[in-house]
Amino acid sequence: MSATYELRGGVAVITLCNPPVNGLAWATRKAIAAGIEQAELDPAVRAIVITGAGKAFSGGADIREFGTPQSSAEPNLHSVLRVIEECSKPVVAAVHAVAMGGGLELALGCHYRVAAPGASIALPEVKLGILPGAGGTQRLPRVLGVENALNMIVSGEPVRSELLARQPGQKLFDQIVEGELVEAAVAFAAEMGDRHAAGASLPKVRDLPARHANPDGYFQFARNTVKAVSRNFPAPLKCIDAVEGAVKRSFEDGLKLERELFIQLLNTPESAALRHAFFAERAASKIPDVPEGTPVRPIASVGVIGAGTMGGGISMNFLNAGIPVTIVETSQAALDRGLGVIRKNYESQLSKGKLDQAAFQKRMALLTPTLQFEDLGKADLIIEAVFEDIAVKEQVFRKLDAIARPGAILATNTSTLDVNQIAGFTRRPADVLGMHFFSPANVMKLLEVVRGKATAKDVLATVMGLARTIRKTAVVAGVCDGFIGNRMIDQYGRQAGFLLDEGCTPSQVDRAIEKFGFAMGPFRMNDLAGNDIGWAIRKRRYVEHPSIRYSRTADLVCEQGRFGQKSGAGWYDYQPGKRTAIASPLVEAMLVEHRQSLGITPRRIDDGEIVHRLVYSLVNEGVRLLEEGIANKASDIDIVYLTGYGFPLHRGGPLCYADSQGLFNVVRAMKRFARNPHDDAGFWEPAPLITRLAAEGKSLS
Ligand code: NAD
Question: Does pTM top 0.90 for this prediction?
Answer without folding.
Answer: yes
